[in-house]
Structure formats: structure tokens, C-alpha cells
Design brief:
Layout (H helix, E strand, L loop, with lengths): L7 H10 L2 H5 L3 H11 L20 H4 L2 E2 L6 H9 L5 E3 L19 H8 L4 E8 L6 H10 L5 E11 H8 L2 H5 L7 E3 L38 E9 L5 E2 L8 E8 L1 E7 L13 E4 L5 E3 L12 H21 L5 H22 L15 H7 L1 H8 L5 H7 L26 H6 L4 E6 L3 E4 L4 E7 L8 E8 L16 H14 L1
Helix pairs in contact: 1-7, 10-11, 10-13
């Protein structure tokens, strides 16, 4: 693909968006050697000869299609979660009898409008265009090899869901834009109070989440991380931008058609991410320089150590109160361990960890009655926002400003041209149709092109379900090294039901 020379302001924008690895180490050999030394990925890899054009007939063999009704959770885990191998599900991830009611037939525009209700505000991305985007956004669009009108590069606005739906389904307005809408319901801001799910799936008036089974039986012991809804309109296809997620995902398509270009995690260095790749774990999860250290399953090491130290301190204090032998020495060791864990958290992370949102105002008598149960709840109600901000959300969510330009792409987005990289090999293309789902392990790079239905709705609609990536030596019975994510999920559910 021939590219014109960048204008001075575009060159500056590209320099701003260039990978920090590239800026810090201009020698490609040094970057390659770093990638080799930190490449620990042991999962399924795509054939180096595979390209979208050459693999169209063999893609079903490389990325198999399964009937979710005939696959046991254990078989799914051993063949795909443990092997880190994507697959297509020829259907929803769960049946209606199991509680899954988000289906193409049920989720009509009228149904969505009724269930979401009035007053629900959503974060909507406005596609970058040559006339509306900054030079940085335009330059990054060129660097990414996507059309000027593309998502993953634009600005965000807050609209009521009903107003968004009106604009999305306005045939006169959208026909003037070639059958496409510049609006896209994308990832919602992760709240400090609740980062499991956001509007329009849940709000003060929305009942949509009742249609989504947060934990389908098929995924076994994988713990939900978050759920998101995608809603847009594009006749010619719009690109998500090339990126990877930090968690495993189930992408459930309810309308339209989605074309996924896929690269396995061993391509992390080659695909020139915005952030500097420091390590690719054995499960494919990509870690970046400057982000706080985490386990392979994404649990921040400093938080895990702090919680363990706080739990031991609480146990030691109880031992002292009950007069156990050696309790005073145990308490002293526990206090020292907690001091070390806090020092590590403050010195090794990016910024000071926020204190736990504990029950500081609780009545002492109530605290004494609840005892250990309340202490444990406090320990696993930690605020992980500092870690999410440093690492970047798995889906490319921004950092909170109303306008998020391309110069601030999250670290997990690639600056490579997807079409050029696909032609080099090690890439397959998977087409998802309404009523199908895609399982994608953490660290798998993907560019998603979205196409609307030709029918009356003329839109595309999907739900993504993310699950914390399994640990480095997972088993079906114990996909994680401890109960860290399970307990956090339980606390999130409790908040959700309040």
C-alpha cells in the first residue's frame, strides 16, 4: 500500500502516537530481542502461512465452530480456554431455559427502548472524519490503515439512550451518510462503585441486564470481569481499530455481520502497540512497561500481597484476643508484613493506591456482631482503578475526558496497518453472523469490521462478556491460583443488587 508523505503537523501527531518502545529503542533488532526474551506465550498459534485470502477455506479448521448445546464446560475448557484457542459458537452462549434471553428475535428497537426506559444516559462515540477530527486523529487513522471515518479514534458524547436510538435509526439522515451513522454505542465508563456493567444494560431504569446470563455454564469457573453492549449502523463497514483485550471474551452478535481479523499473542511485538510490550504471559495476556506488575490472570501483585497481609493481620488480632500461644509474635510479624506490602504498593505501582472503601462509619456494635464476615468483605472490596488506568481498559476505553483523540490511544491498540499485517501471514479472518458468538482468549489481537443488516433495522448490535484470564497453570476445577477474582465478583454482584 503506497502512502503519501505526512504533513509536518501529521508527522508530529504520528510521533506522539508512536510506540514508546520505538521512541526509546529505534534499533529494530533491540526491540526484537526484547520481544523474544519476554515472549512466554505457550498457547495455540496460527500457522505463519495463514492469511485472510489464503485461509478462507481452512479458517473453520483453524478456528472451529462448535454447537454450544453439545459441548460440555469441561471439554470447552480443555480444548479452548486451556489451549488459548478461539472458536465460533453456532448460537448463543446459553439457552433460554438457562436464563439467556438476549436474542436477535427479542431485542428489537421497540423492546430495547421499553426496557432501557427514559433518562438512561449512555456514552456514544462519534466517528472521526476528515472534517471533524484533529490532525492527530487523521494521522493515526492513516497509521492504522483504516478509513478516515473510523471508530476507536474519535470523540465521545453523552446522550440519552432514546435520543441515540432515534439518531441511529433515522433513515433520512443516515442515508445521506451512505447508510452509516457516525454514532456508536461503545464501552461505557467504568465506575469506581461498579465496574462490572454499565448503561444501558443497567441503570436506575434499565432492565436489559436481566436478559443476559452473566456466567453461562459453558465458561465453567471463569469469573466475569464486565459486560458491554455495542450498537451502531454501517452499510459499508466500520473498523474498531486493531487491538487486543486483557481478558477472555465472548462476543455475542445479535444483529448484522462482524468480520474479525485475528492474530495470536505471539504477534505482539510485530504489531507495534501504542504501549511498550514488557511481557506476554504464558496465557497470552500482554503486559506493558510502566504498568503495575500483575499476575498472569491480571490480579495486581501489590493488591494481592496487601490483601493477604491484611487478612493475616486480622487473623493475628483475633488470635491475640482469644489468648492463643504465640499470638503476640504472630501479630508483630503480620504488622511488619503489612508495612512491607503497603510500601511495595506505593513504590512499585503508578501512584498511591486508594484506600479500601471500608465501613469506617459503621456502628462498633454492628461491626462486632458481623465479625469476620465484614472484615473479609472489606479486604476484597479494593479499589483497582489505579491499575486499570495505568494498564488501559481491555477494550480501548479512554481515561475520562469528553474528547479522546488519537494521540492518547490506549496501550493495547496497534499502530500497524491491519491489511498489510494480515498479508504477511499469521492471520485468519472469521465472519460472525447474527445469532453466533466468538470466544477470544486474552491477548489475541483483532480488528473488527461491523456491517449492518439489510433488513428493516439496518443496524448492528452485539453484547461482549469479558472474563478474567485464567492463571498460568489452570485446571477446569481451579482456573485461578486463588479466590481473588471470585470474591471481587461476589462484591460486585452485591453492589449490583443493592
Amino acid at each position: 500500500m503506497t502512502r503519501r508523505a505526512a504533513e509536518p503537523d501529521e508527522a508530529a501527531a504520528l510521533a506522539a502516537t508512536a510506540s514508546p518502545c520505538k521512541r526509546a529503542r529505534p534499533n529494530p533488532q533491540s526491540q526484537a530481542s526484547l520481544g523474544a526474551s519476554m515472549m512466554e506465550y505457550t498457547g495455540f498459534r496460527l500457522p505463519s502461512s495463514a492469511t485472510p485470502s489464503s485461509s478462507s477455506s481452512s479458517s473453520p479448521l483453524i478456528i472451529p465452530t462448535l454447537n454450544p448445546a453439545s459441548v460440555s464446560p469441561r471439554d470447552f475448557f480443555e480444548a479452548h480456554v486451556e489451549q488459548r484457542r478461539p472458536c465460533v459458537l453456532a448460537g448463543m452462549p446459553a439457552s433460554e431455559s438457562e436464563g439467556w434471553r438476549a436474542t436477535p428475535e427479542r431485542w428489537t428497537d421497540a423492546y430495547l427502548r421499553e426496557k432501557v426506559g427514559p433518562g438512561c444516559k449512555v456514552r456514544v462515540e462519534v466517528a472521526s472524519t476528515s472534517s471533524s477530527s484533529s490532525s492527530a486523529a487523521a494521522a493515526a487513522a492513516a497509521a492504522l490503515g483504516v478509513a478516515p471515518r473510523a471508530f476507536g479514534l474519535g470523540r465521545f458524547e453523552t446522550l440519552e439512550f432514546g435520543s441515540f436510538l432515534d439518531a441511529l435509526t433515522d433513515d433520512d439522515d443516515n442515508n445521506n451518510n451512505g447508510g452509516s451513522s457516525p454514532l456508536y454505542l461503545t464501552t461505557q465508563k467504568r465506575s469506581t462503585e461498579l465496574d462490572l456493567v454499565g448503561p444501558p444494560l443497567v441503570s436506575s431504569s434499565s432492565a436489559l441486564l436481566n436478559d443476559v446470563l452473566m456466567r453461562p455454564k459453558l465458561v465453567g469457573g471463569l469469573v466475569p470481569a464486565r459486560v458491554n453492549m455495542w450498537f451502531g449502523r454501517s452499510r459499508s463497514g466500520t473498523s474498531s481499530g486493531l487491538h487486543h483485550d486483557f481478558e477472555d471474551s465472548l462476543y455475542v452478535l445479535l444483529r448484522g455481520r462482524k468480520v474479525f481479523r485475528l492474530w495470536d499473542p505471539s504477534s505482539a511485538q510485530r504489531l507495534r502497540t501504542r504501549g511498550c510490550v514488557a511481557r506476554v504471559a504464558s496465557n497470552g495476556r500482554v503486559e506493558y512497561a510502566g504498568a503495575p506488575p500483575v499476575r498472569a490472570d491480571g490480579a495486581p501483585l501489590a493488591v494481592v500481597a496487601r490483601l493477604a497481609a491484611e487478612a493475616e493481620l486480622a487473623a493475628a488480632e483475633r488470635a491475640v484476643r482469644s489468648g492463643e500461644a504465640g499470638a503476640e509474635a504472630r501479630l508483630e510479624r503480620a504488622e511488619e508484613a503489612l508495612d512491607e506490602a503497603l510500601a511495595e504498593a506505593l513504590g512499585g505501582g503508578r501512584g498511591e493506591l486508594a484506600p479500601d472503601p471500608t465501613t469506617a462509619d459503621d456502628d462498633e456494635e454492628e461491626e462486632e456482631e458481623n465479625g469476620e464476615e465484614e472484615e473479609e468483605e472489606e479486604l476484597f472490596d479494593s479499589d483497582l482503578d489505579d491499575y486499570a488506568a495505568a494498564e488501559g481498559d481491555g477494550d480501548g476505553d479512554g481515561d475520562g475526558d469528553e474528547v479522546e483523540e488519537a494521540s492518547r490511544l490506549p496501550p493495547n491498540f496497534s499502530l500497524a496497518d491491519p491489511a498489510e499485517e494480515a498479508a504477511k501471514g499469521g492471520c485468519v479472518e472469521v465472519t460472525l453472523h447474527a445469532g453466533e458468538s466468538l470466544y477470544l482468549p486474552a491477548g489475541w489481537f483483532h480488528e473488527v469490521r461491523s456491517f449492518s443488516d439489510d433488513g428493516a433495522s439496518a443496524t448492528h448490535l452485539a453484547v461482549s462478556m469479558w472474563f478474567h484470564a485464567p492463571g498460568e497453570q489452570p485446571t477446569f476445577e481451579a482456573p485461578y491460583p486463588d479466590a481473588f477474582w471470585e470474591r471481587k465478583y461476589e462484591n460486585e454482584l452485591e453492589k449490583l443488587l443493592m
